[in-house]
Amino acid sequence: MVTSVPLLMLAALMGLGLLLDLLLGEPRRLHPLVGFGTLASALERRLNKGSARRACGLLAWVLAVLPLVLLSFWLLALAHTRWGAWAWLGHAVLLYGALGLRSLRDHSAPIAQALHGGDLAGARRMTACIVSRDTQEASESDLAKAGVESLLENGSDAVFGTLFWFAIAGGPGALLFRLANTLDAMWGYRNARFGEFGWMAARTDDVLGFIPARLTALTYALLGHTRCALRCWKTQASNWPSPNAGPVMAAGAGALGLTLGGKARYDGEDEMRPPLGEGRHARATDLARAWALVAKGSVLWLIIFSLVAALATPGLWP
């Protein structure tokens, strides 16, 4: 079904999906990823037990992801038999459901507003909704740093990785990536509960995100302080525990001219993380700068994909 969509049309559908995301944002009711998270939690509670947790983790991943991806292929094929080329709009709808560009702004802008207004308690509460670190005693700089780091990393997952797999496999490709990424966010922890069970979720996300993460890092570098971003990517990325987040966050911090990483509190204990970027510490205004970097990168990707699609379309050029 995906291969039947002309490449130039797929580029137009990518633009439509981005536009829908920016105009509509997350569905307020019946968000598909929220529903998927509920399903994944139920599977984890049922299967994450016993001695064969690695096998159970593999089974849970397959049961959570593959039926939904296969269903998306089937529904697109069924729609195509009934409505012909109009069914291609289903790819844009799937992309809209998987994208999170508007969501990144909607979650980060209120934090910046609270910090500007001196509402530190409110900023702490809202920041805790988007990061896993403790924020009860976080300073303004700590909260700004946490928000910027979240924007840079989730820009790769919720935006660029989704666009990459949409370009590869249309709407089902975007859906596959986002479902796999969601499972990694839920199960991919190195702790007693998920260390064995979550291995499939963590490894699959690493594989699917490998190329998009490095393209994201390159995008950040091109749209910011390029030399600094490339230098930070080269010297700092390998120190970060995640093979994909390292390049993204190091290049993003360098592109913005900020120093990120360092101390953060998790489960009541301070953790010293590797340094990211170069320059001053983050401020409230940097949340908007980080989102703008992701948004500009999305436009750049759309332009590049459209140009590639146009060049690859037979008969379009004399």
UniProtKB/TrEMBL annotation:
The keyword Cell membrane applies. It holds the Pfam family CobD_Cbib. GO terms for molecular function: ABC-type vitamin B12 transporter activity; threonine-phosphate decarboxylase activity. It comes from the Bacteria. GO terms for biological process: cobalamin biosynthetic process. Pathway: Cofactor biosynthesis; adenosylcobalamin biosynthesis. Keywords: Cell membrane, Cobalamin biosynthesis, Membrane, Transmembrane, Transmembrane helix. The keyword Transmembrane applies. It is found in: Cell membrane. Its main location: membrane. It is a multi-pass membrane protein. One of its GO terms (cellular component) is plasma membrane. The chain crosses the membrane at residues 6-24, 55-77, 299-317. Converts cobyric acid to cobinamide by the addition of aminopropanol on the F carboxylic group. Belongs to the CobD/CbiB family. This is Cobalamin biosynthesis protein CobD. It comes from Craterilacuibacter sinensis.
